[in-house]
Amino acid sequence: METEKGMAIEKSGAYETVPEVFERTVAENYSKVALRTKALGIWHDITWARYHDRAKKVGCALLSFGFEKGECACIIGDNCIEWVMADLGIQCVGGVSVGVYATNAWPQVEYVINHCDARFLFVENEEQLDKWLMFKDKAPLLKKVIVFDPKGLRSFKDPMVMTFDEFLETGAAADQEHPSAFDGRKQTVTPDDLAVLIYTSGTTGPPKGAMLTHKNVTWMAGAVEGTVKIQKEDNVLSFLPLCHIFERLFTVFIHIKYGYIVNFVEKPDTVMQNMKEVSPTIGYAVPRIWEKYYSSIMIKMADADWLKRLAFGLAMKAGKSRAHLIMQEKPVGLLQKAAYFLAWFLVFRKLKERLGFENIRVAISGAAPISKEVLHFFQSIGMNLIEGYGQTEGTGVTTLSPETGARPGTVGKALDGVNIKIAEDGEILIQSPGVFKGYYKSEAATAAGMTEGWLCTGDVGEMDADGF
To answer: Do the beta carbons of residue 158 and residue 132 sit within 8 Å?
Structure first.
């Protein structure tokens, strides 16, 4: 069976490149805030103009060192503004941006760098630079290693290593000397060119590099908005690994299309504190994060006094009754509305404020299955947590629950433009403009993952009468 939504796939001429989308949004929001980062306890704003300026300087510096179209550059580190500036700089000059997990050990980093023939490596700090030093002589194609945060490296000298600030200065000088080089290269980028390589975890063998094109990522940015409305006034918190397609979509690709604000966490262990400070309007995380919040709330309530436990229990009863109706797409009666309003006013309002969830319009769980209990809990307290499904090879999202509410036991409907077919053995097969170009340097793996033009997901599923 196939979905009816997506039978008409756009013609290739309608697709855009990352630099085209980025340039248009910069022009429309030049002096508005694009990114926010926290330093020394203070949040700092970065405008779209400054964002573009830094990305352009990255691109110009790469060109000055002989970076060719289609070559790869790797980035390793936790989420930060420099990460995305390097990412867009690479893509704007026709390069392929390759994210590496900050938690990877040096042999894993060495594998990715050599497998993709990376010419440049951007590292966050001394810790990540040390990984490169372990295989320095075994990565002969690398030309430069650029360090975002040089703290602790004042006395370190290596002709291949330079700081991010030095790299930007090189780009500024190159732009003055060759003012048309950046735009000239940018105009050669086509929708079918590679934009990023996303490496799999490698749990069943060596990591495979999924090749995503400019068409894949820019199309997906628009397709997600067809189900979950994105507004310029939105803001999100960036904390999942940027080399994963889930975070990359919201921090980079959807962001540069719709122009909302991306806030970067200080570090991985300050997510909950930064969530309270930012109070985003769109939330997204893997199930482990939502389960952690859920467990924390339940543990605290178990330790509370009897009056608070009683109030929470009554509020949850009202919340669950309302959530059950909403998730079944049934009307909520006046009595249930009144009971929920009282529960919200006395319990849920304060609870959501303490978590930083009070402004969340919609929250998304993806990348792994989430339990019905956790999903129902957040719906019960009045936070619209919905579930999505997809894989890197399909540019991250295949199905997404409607923003009006999740249906327990399903992962939503196909995005507009996505065709889904259930094979005879139950495997989910998909077609869409988001389906990847294949695995880098592996025609055999690419062929094994496709059948007659359909992406083989390796997952078993079924579809109900409503297309969920």
So the answer is: no
Q: Which of 219, 274, 221 is nearest to 80 (CA)?
A: 274
Cβ atoms of 235 and 206 within 8 Å: the answer is no
The neighbour count for residue 195, using CB atoms within 10 Å, is 26
Closest CA to 22 of 315, 253, 279: 253
Can you give the three-state secondary structure of 420-464, one letter per residue?
EEECCCCEEEEECCCCCCEECCCHHHHHHCEECCEEEEEEECCCC
Which domains can be identified in the chain, with CATH numbers?
Answer: 12-284 (3.40.50.12780), 287-414 (no CATH)
Handedness of CA 429, 432, 434, 440 (dihedral sign): positive
**Nearest CA to 327 among 414, 374, 283, 386?**
386
Query: In which residue are the tokens 């068409």 written?
Result: 215
Question: Contact at 8 Å (CB) between 21 and 434?
Answer: no
- Taking the alpha carbons of 422, 424, 426, 430 in that order, is the dihedral positive or negative? negative
Say whether pTM exceeds 0.85. yes
Q: Which of 4-13, 23-32, 136-145, 355-364 has the lowest mean pLDDT?
A: 4-13
Among 60-74, 144-158, 376-390, name the most confident range. 60-74
Beta bridge partners of 421: 2, 429
